[in-house]
Amino acid sequence: MASAVFFVVFFVILIAVYIGFIVLQIRLSKMDSKWPGLVLPSITLLLSLVATITVFVKAGTDMSGYGSMWNVVLSAIIAFLSNNVSTIVLAGIYMYQRDRINRRAELARMNVQDL
User: Fold this and answer.
1) Which residues does 55 contact at the CB level (< 8 Å), separation at least 6?
2) What angle do CA 84, 46, 48 make, to 5 degrees?
3) Domain residue limits at 15
4) How many domains does the chain have?
5) What is the pTM of this model?
6) Alpha carbon of 92 to those of 45, 56, 95: distances in Å?
7) Contact (CB, 8 A) for 40 and 28
């Protein structure tokens, strides 16, 4: 019973953290400078690269768990792709927000030209 309660609490906290990261990404992407919005996608991309390198390092120290080199490469590709889901989501939020900012700026320039 205690483990089920722990799982539910952990799951709720995990969802709250994910929502917090998404809200933070939206706020950073809405800033005038384009660089703050690229911070979180860059961090998640670096973390996925670390996970991919870790697969190669683990395979180099203990090859018995992986089998052939193709299995290591496949495991590294799967690690890279699965860890980049958050990078894709955060980059998508960034591109959407920057597109909205650019459209508003273009509309403002058009309105000024119409005057």
Assistant:
1) 72, 75, 76, 79
2) 35
3) 2-114
4) 1
5) 0.82
6) 13, 29, 5
7) yes
* Cβ atoms of 49 and 58 closer than 8 Å: no
Cβ neighbors of 45 (< 8 A, separation 6 or more) are: 84, 87
Question: Residues 22-54, buried b or exposed e (16+ Cβ, 10 A)?
Answer: eeebeebbeeeeeebbbebbeebbeebeeebee
Would you tell me how many other CB atoms lie within 10 Å of the CB of residue 86?
Answer: 20
pLDDT one-digit tens code per residue, 56-107: 888 776 666 656 778 888 988 999 999 999 999 999 999 999 999 999 999 9
